[in-house]
Design a protein that fits this description.
- It is built from ten helices and 15 strands.
- α5 runs parallel beside α6 and α6 packs antiparallel against α10.
- The N terminus is likely disordered.
- By secondary structure, the chain is α/β, with parallel strands linked by helices.
- The chain starts with a strand and ends in a 7-residue tail after the last strand.
- The strands form three sheets. The chain has a seven-stranded mixed beta sheet, with helices on one face. A six-stranded parallel beta sheet has the order 5-4-3-6-7-8, with helices on both faces. Strands 1-2 form a two-stranded antiparallel sheet.
Length: 336
């Protein structure tokens, strides 16, 4: 990880003490468990996976009155943040943007992300938008163009992309291919992936936008952008998704609507590597938040925002294919 460092000598024995610049972080949307999880990791120095570099100092509660999973949680989470961490609650997004260095847009309702981002974009400060970036590709593109207009550093991702078990599997695949093919043509390290995970539905969320996005994000972490067609086959227990990339690579996702674990098998020229997400003790929220704090400091996202927009297009294609029982070409033109 790359951070800006402040080095100072401690008076006891002259030992070098390193401290990261402390950013003031504003939070938008207190209707998701992520609001509590992220604040614990940032503000609680006693947390086993405490992350340096910034603290949540203020929040705009937000909430979607017509979405039960949002409306039923705002007051409770807001109270927790006030009582446990003394987080200041503000009355407007503009007020929040004016008093922080960076923002976590956490609203669980993806349909409000565009409006909320538009309210803070003019400040030009880094913004992380929690998954999903939006509920439609068109909305996602408008958010990105707004970020470009105001030169706003923008990042959006599911935490599963940075799960330690997946990262280790990707590194193992890379190392194995480097050892077996030290020279020769340049090949994508991951030539295919078979991923699996829970895909329950939630009222107010279009199909796979609720939980399916997590496994899709894992696929893109391994394969990168470039999917051209999605075919979804429903079953009594879930779905089988086949994604075909422009370079001929294929990814599959097996979704289980009744729950289950996250995982994947990554295939490369050197063999296959299994990643069982729950096998690593570090919470994937912590791994994601490390990337976010680094992004807040450097103002450089660890993944291209165009890839995130393609993920939204992929999810739309999954939903369309499940409804039509036909393959669907990805349509995500319009983002330069």
């Amino acid at each position: 990880m790359i951070f800006r460092w402040i080095a100072s000598w401690t008076p006891e024995g002259g030992e070098l003490k390193e401290m990261k610049d402390m950013l003031s972080i504003g939070m938008v949307g207190l209707d998701t468990s992520h609001a509590i999880a992220f604040t614990e990791l940032l503000n609680d120095s006693g947390h086993p996976y405490h992350i340096l570099g910034g603290k949540v100092t203020a929040a705009y509660p937000g909430g979607s009155p017509n979405l039960p999973i949002s409306a039923s949680r705002v007051d409770g989470y807001a109270t927790q943040l006030q009582e446990r961490f003394e987080i200041q609650l503000v009355e407007s997004l503009e007020e929040l943007a004016g008093q922080c260095d960076a923002m976590l847009l956490e609203s669980v309702d993806g349909s409000v992300h565009e409006e909320q981002f538009a309210a803070v974009a003019a400040c030009g400060k880094p913004v992380f938008i929690d998954k999903p970036l939006a509920f439609t590709t068109e909305e996602a593109i408008r958010i990105v163009k707004l970020a470009q207009q105001y030169n706003v550093p923008l990042m959006s991702s599911s935490a599963l992309r940075y799960a330690e078990a997946l990262t280790a599997a990707l590194q193992a695949a890379d190392a194995a291919q480097s050892a077996s093919v030290p020279t020769g043509p340049s090949l994508a390290v991951v030539q295919g992936i078979d991923a699996y995970g829970p895909t329950p539905r939630e009222a107010g969320f279009p199909g796979w936008f609720w939980y399916g996005i997590h496994t899709v994000e894992m696929v893109y972490a391994a394969m990168g952008a470039g999917c051209e067609q999605v075919e979804a086959m429903p079953s009594a227990e879930g779905e089988l998704i086949i994604g075909r990339w422009k370079d001929g690579r294929i990814a599959t996702i097996r979704g289980n609507q009744h729950g289950g674990a996250f995982g994947a098998v990554l295939h490369s020229a050197a063999g296959s590597v299994h990643a069982e997400i729950a096998s690593h003790p570090k919470p994937f929220y912590a791994s994601l938040l490390e990337q976010i704090v680094n992004f807040f400091h450097t103002k450089q996202s660890p993944l291209p925002i165009a890839e995130t927009v393609e993920i939204i297009a992929f999810l739309e294609a999954v939903n369309e294919s499940l409804a039509s029982r036909k393959p669907v070409a990805l349509g995500h033109a319009g983002l330069s």
